[in-house]
Design brief:
alpha/beta; Rossmann fold; 2 domains; 6-stranded mixed β-sheet
């Protein structure tokens, strides 16, 4: 199936236009009262927000947390996207492999990752994070997503595409004349893919680390030396 054609046709539907308009309104409201930045992982969801802002001439700093368990070319992809679309790009690199030896995996991804973003925000005097989480894929945080935002006492976290479906995400990327990160092309349809299934040890039980083993064996073996249990899933 020609998924590019499918997504572009979907972008002409009323339901897509309503969701996109609502997302833009949320971003504009956050920018009018706060000093926001976009948290950009390189995944399709945060990329769709980047593309929405580009299409509507909205600019803000972009932060990417890069680590040694990511796809090797993900940080390059994020930097190129921001530079070509005219966004101020910031990147912090973390040696996750070394940190995994010293901390629990859940602590690393649920505590240390948000701390890295907050450190960046404080340094640049920002007080609001625009985050690409969706109800469809983040059911554990559905309460905050239904509200549209979450204030942790120091920072406001805003979820403009909480109501987006996978088709909305891909359509937005194509409308900006961009291409999603190449790993999604291994999925049929592409919008069903999730980067976190491939590289995040929290979700190893999904069995998706087979992708990492097949296409990035060096990264897979590095991760298995730390957590041999991963081999159970492939």
């Amino acid at each position: 199936m020609d998924w590019t054609k499918y997504y572009l046709e979907y972008s002409e539907t009323d339901i897509y236009r309503r969701r996109a308009s609502r997302a833009i309104a949320i971003i504009k409201e956050a920018r009018s009262s706060r000093k926001p930045y976009l948290s950009f992982s390189g995944g399709k969801d945060s990329q769709s927000i980047l593309c929405l802002m580009y299409l509507h001439n909205i600019r803000m700093p972009v932060f990417h947390r890069s680590d040694t368990l990511d796809f090797p070319d993900c940080a390059i992809f994020c930097k190129n996207e921001c530079e070509e679309l005219g966004f101020e790009y910031h990147e912090e690199m973390y040696d996750t492999v070394a940190e995994l030896r010293q901390s629990d995996m859940m602590e690393l991804f649920t505590v240390k990752t948000p701390q890295a973003a907050k450190k960046f925000a404080r340094k640049h005097h920002l007080d609001c994070a625009i985050i690409g989480l969706r109800k469809q894929e983040s059911k554990g945080r559905k309460y905050h997503l239904m509200k549209g935002s979450y204030n942790d006492g120091e920072f406001l976290n805003v979820f403009p595409i909480a109501d987006f479906k996978g088709e909305d995400v891909m359509a937005t990327i194509l409308l900006a004349d961009r291409k999603w990160f190449h790993v999604y092309d291994h999925y049929d349809p592409p919008h069903k893919g999730r980067l976190s299934w491939m590289v995040n040890p929290r979700v190893a039980s999904h069995g998706q680390v087979h992708f990492l083993k097949r296409y990035y064996p060096e990264q897979f073996n590095k991760l298995c030396r730390i957590n041999p249990r991963l081999r159970m899933y492939v």
